[in-house]
Amino acid sequence: MASADLLCKARPQPVNLERHRRLVNHLVRFLQVNAPFSVSQVIEAGSMGHGTVTSLGSDIDLVVMSPDLPRVSHQLWLKGKLLEMMIVLQRASIGPEDIDSLPPVGSAIVQTIPRSEGFKISRYSVQFKCCGYDVDLLMTYDWELVNYRRLYRRCRRVKSEQARQWYSVATAKRQVQFMSEQSSNVSHIYSFCL
After folding, report:
1. 133: helix, coil or strand?
2. Which of 107, 148, 171, 174 could make an S-S bridge to 103, C-beta 3.0–4.6 Å?
3. Is-contact 74 143, C-beta < 8 A?
4. Ranges 122-126, 129-133, 162-166: which has the least confidence
């Protein structure tokens, strides 16, 4: 099989990408207004955010960045904030059951999300299933508001691998930017390595 054929088979169908995009836009708009803390930005991370999604399916990885979250000692506060966020999402999970029934982008403020299930908290995220997609919602302090150098220095000082993993969430915007600057060949190679 030629590499061009393999790439065509690996790419998701445009209609699936459009449905994914509608759901992500809806979730982002909901989070910007309804999160239990102020939100400076919501970044779509993971394979969709990096532009490396394949036709085998994808999940939705969203990183909520806030100036209200502490910069350090996540092990002391993160679980409580994740629980707060999960409760907000569960209560709002009364909207339509499918993506096609979502209101168009730019319509009224989003107060609900599509009916979702399987809510749980992992070490770093709220996880749930929405319209057939597995959603991982992470949260972090928005280091862009102060300086990424501070984040880098902090990462170099911490000894715990778990702490480094949590701090890596704060670099989601930079990771997405880096992948967007790569040629499409690099992105395709990266997606096959996942």
Report:
1. strand
2. 107
3. no
4. 162-166
Residue 139: band (very low, low, confident or very high) from pLDDT cuts 50, 70, 90 = very high
E strands present in the chain: 41-45, 60-66, 116-121, 125-130, 133-141
- Residues ≥6 apart with Cβ < 8 Å to 160: none
Helices (H) and strands (E) in the chain, counts: 8, 5
- Count of other CB atoms within 10 angstroms of residue 127: 18
Calculate the average pLDDT of the chain: 79
Could you give the CA distance from residue 97 to residue 113 in angstroms, rounded to a whole number?
9
CB neighbours of residue 155 within 10 Å: 15
Calpha distance 121→81 (Å, rounded): 10
43: left (phi over 0), alpha (psi -120 to 50) or beta: beta
Rounded to an integer, the average pLDDT of 62-70 is 94
DSSP secondary structure letter of residue 33:
H
194 vs 191: CA distance, rounded Å:
5
pLDDT-derived band at 182 (thresholds 50, 70, 90) equals: low
The torsion angles phi and psi of 143, rounded to 5 degrees, stand at -65, -20
